[in-house]
Amino acid sequence: MLTLNLIGAGRLGKSIAQMAQQSGRYRLAAIYSRSLASSTAAGMWIGAGEVVAQLGDLPSADLWLISVPDGAIAGVAAELAELKLVKQGAVAFHASGALAADQLAPLAAQGAYCASWHPAFSFADPTRAVQTFVGTLCALEGDAKAVAILSEFTAAIGGCAFALSSEAGAKVAYHAALSMAANFLVTLSDLSLKTAEQAGIAPEIAQQLVLGLIRQTLNNIDSLGAAAALTGPIVRGDAATVAQHLAVLPPATQAVYRALGVATVALAGERLSHPATINQLLRAKD
């Protein structure tokens, strides 16, 4: 059975540690956090792992999960390297969505296999996270040996691992893709709801209209692909309707409509017979 040390006792870290412990393939050896109270609470919640008060008190382990804020990862790696805690051949990995394995360079220099490992999952509620994690896609990037070992780790806790490109900027591009999908969809939904209310639609009805259409659209993207799922006035080349939309939107919302409209014209491609007309309208300065 492989051993795991957890550094950082937040929601993600303690959720992953508990799933690893429950898998029967891994034993949580120890937990360290800057806050001893957080470490103690995590240990009680997980039901395993020795709680240590100092980083230097962590025992040897096969896997080291560094689950701390992005800005602290490099510092923790440097401190671990200075203390020579991570032995040659051990796997050290962090769970940042945007940062790559190079944050752990001091440990790699000492012979550890280093990687970044990011589950595309929200850990807002650890109890629910443990219950619903199965099937979650987890992005891996870094040393080939670490990627192989962490692919097995991912499968053991119910996730599905996939490898990112080793090209510079690939990890950031991955995180930007997730941010656009998760964050901008929320923003766009809010703008749609406000525009529906501008039409005099009651908020509860607006919610049903907008969210219902979003669900239908996501289903269409899933079954048809993004380009084929496009509907509406832009893909139809209906410049008159687009102009009417722009005329009633407040400036901030209109700016979003124009920017996304131009991207929609590009996505529509050959389905749009006269893209120049729509593009000119969308790019026009009032």
Sheet having the most strands: 8 strands, mixed
* Class of secondary structure makeup: alpha/beta
How much is the average pLDDT?
A: 97
In what range is the share of β-strand residues? 5-15%
Q: Spans with pLDDT under 50 lasting ≥5 residues? A: none
Annotated CATH architecture of the largest domain: 3-Layer(aba) Sandwich
CATH-level-4 superfamily name of the largest domain: NAD(P)-binding Rossmann-like Domain
Q: What is the number of domains?
A: 2
Strand order of the largest sheet: 3-2-1-4-5-6-7-8
Please characterize this protein's 3D structure.
There is one protein chain. By secondary structure, the chain is of the alpha/beta class. It has 2 domains: 2-165, Rossmann fold (3-Layer(aba) Sandwich); 173-283. 55% of the residues lie in helices and 14% in strands. It has 13 helices and 8 strands. The protein has helices spanning 11-23, 36-46, 70-83, 105-108, 126-132, 144-156, 170-198, 203-224, 226-229, 233-236, 239-248, 251-268, 275-283, and strands at residues 2-7, 26-32, 50-51, 63-66, 91-94, 113-119, 137-142, 160-163. Strands 3-2-1-4-5-6-7-8 form an 8-stranded mixed β-sheet, sandwiched between helices. β1 (2-7), α1 and β2 (26-32) form a beta-alpha-beta unit. α1 crosses α5 (126-132). The mean pLDDT is 97.
